[in-house]
């Protein structure tokens, strides 16, 4: 890495965007070039000074949501009718005018699958039996469950714990070498059934609650997801 | 349901960048009200063109590009007010040893709009010169020269090196 390349990498470095190999070159150059080390130090001062100014986009986000999805007259009348009929009118109207929490969970799972599996951003995966076994046991996943979840020709590639919509879940990745399926196992789930497959981030996504297992399936495409869903529905 | 799904997908992609967009817009426009209008316009433009976003695109860069286009196309330059922290405040800050953030803010406000945009995109938002060139539709050499001039100007304003050598 030369000084010009270093200078271009300063911003990505401060934003933690450098890949591992570039990061090593960047660090080595910084240690051997006092002038570039000064560039880094002073750029960081500038960045921190700008970031010190608090910003609150809540007002903007609210205005954008209203512009994108204004409460229609039909929804308004639905809310009024519900208020007459049910004591839970407020809740009914709320569900008519805001995205379902389940959709948010599916969207979060699809995003996580894109970043961690399709884009393969570095994460602390458990890759062997010694590491994966206790994780599966902690979420009540047995070997027979793996057979039910695994699409034909796929094998369990890796697993880890992660956060999904504020909940700790077990993230398992099955692959056939080319395609991947993420299965997120939640710690609880009362309703039984498998939802229709939605599409987020160009992936097929379904939520399921079958027997002891509850979670979300994300396939690289709808077909792969549907394969797992069919297996779950047959349980 | 389809509209709801699309909106949720858009929000998951765009809302996490709203604070960064607003922070950048405030430094670019010079006042909070104009910045909020600009970011709102940016997100609505993004929503309208969301279907054209490629799966492998960088959504953050895509949103910043929309913001810069919105800023230019709507002529906000003409109505822009001076950036907060005027020059005399900078001088006063140096004399009275006020916080470095005030000094840096004042120095930023003295940069030309083009230089300020490039410096903020590179150092604060973490984009490479190539990414910035793509956002602004200008040659990468122009980005590098603007960045160099911005750093030199910051050095002169602050009285010592800021992101330069």
Overview of the structural elements:
The complex is a heterodimer of chains A (235) and B (165). With 235 residues, chain A is an alpha+beta fold. Chain A has helices at residues 3-14, 20-32, 34-51, 58-68, 73-85, 89-97, 101-118, 129-138, 143-149, 222-233, and strands spanning 155-164, 167-175, 180-185, 193-194, 198-200, 203-210, 213-219. In chain A, strands 1, 2, 3, 4, 5, 6 and 7 form a seven-stranded antiparallel β-sheet that branches. The longest helix of chain A is centred in the first third of the chain and has 18 residues, at 34-51. Chain A is globular, with a radius of gyration of 23 Å. Residues 76-101 of chain A have low confidence and may be disordered. Chain B is mostly helical. Chain B folds into two domains: 2-79, RNA polymerase sigma factor, region 2, helix turn helix motif (Rna Polymerase Sigma Factor, Chain: A), CATH 1.10.1740.10; 87-158, Winged helix-like DNA-binding domain superfamily/Winged helix DNA-binding domain (Arc Repressor Mutant, subunit A), CATH 1.10.10.10. Classes of the chains: A alpha+beta (235), B mainly alpha (165). At the A-B interface, helix 1, helix 3, helix 4, helix 7 and strand 5 of A face helix 1, helix 2, helix 3, helix 7 and helix 8 of B.
């Amino acid at each position: 890495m030369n000084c010009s390349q270093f200078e271009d990498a300063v911003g990505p470095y401060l934003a933690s965007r450098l890949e591992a190999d570039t990061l090593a070159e960047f660090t080595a150059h910084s240690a051997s070039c006092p002038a570039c080390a000064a560039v880094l130090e002073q750029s960081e001062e500038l960045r921190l000074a700008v970031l010190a100014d608090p910003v609150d986009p809540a007002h903007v986000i609210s205005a954008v949501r209203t512009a994108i999805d204004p409460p229609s007259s039909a929804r308004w009348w639905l809310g009024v009718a519900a208020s007459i009929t049910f004591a839970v009118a407020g809740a009914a109207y709320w569900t008519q005018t805001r995205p379902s929490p389940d959709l948010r969970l599916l969207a979060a799972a699809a995003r996580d699958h894109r970043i961690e599996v399709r884009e393969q951003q570095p994460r602390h995966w458990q890759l062997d039996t010694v590491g994966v076994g206790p994780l599966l046991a902690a979420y009540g996943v047995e070997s027979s469950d793996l057979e039910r979840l695994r699409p034909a020709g796929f094998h369990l590639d890796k697993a880890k714990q992660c956060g999904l919509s504020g909940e700790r879940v077990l993230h398992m990745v099955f692959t056939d070498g080319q395609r991947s399926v993420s299965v997120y196992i939640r710690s609880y789930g009362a309703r039984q059934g498998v939802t229709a497959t939605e599409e987020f981030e160009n992936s097929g996504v379904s939520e399921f609650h079958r027997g002891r297992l509850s979670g979300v399936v994300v396939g690289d495409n709808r077909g792969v997801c549907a394969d797992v869903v069919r297996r779950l529905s047959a349980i | 349901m389809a509209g709801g799904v699309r909106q949720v997908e858009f929000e998951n992609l765009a809302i996490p960048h709203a604070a960064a967009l607003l922070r950048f817009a405030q430094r670019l426009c010079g006042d909070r009200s104009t910045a909020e209008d600009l970011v709102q316009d940016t997100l609505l433009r993004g929503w309208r063109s969301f279907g054209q976003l490629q799966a492998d695109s960088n959504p953050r860069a895509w949103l910043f590009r929309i913001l810069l286009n919105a800023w230019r196309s709507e002529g906000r330059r003409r109505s822009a007010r001076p950036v907060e922290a005027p020059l005399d405040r900078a001088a006063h800050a140096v004399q009275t040893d006020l916080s470095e953030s005030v000094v840096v803010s004042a120095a930023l406000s003295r940069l030309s709009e083009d230089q300020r945009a490039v410096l903020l995109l590179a150092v604060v938002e973490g984009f490479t010169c190539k990414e910035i060139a793509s956002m602004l539709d200008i040659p990468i050499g122009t980005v590098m020269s603007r960045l160099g001039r911005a750093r030199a100007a910051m050095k002169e304003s602050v009285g010592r090196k800021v992101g330069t050598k």
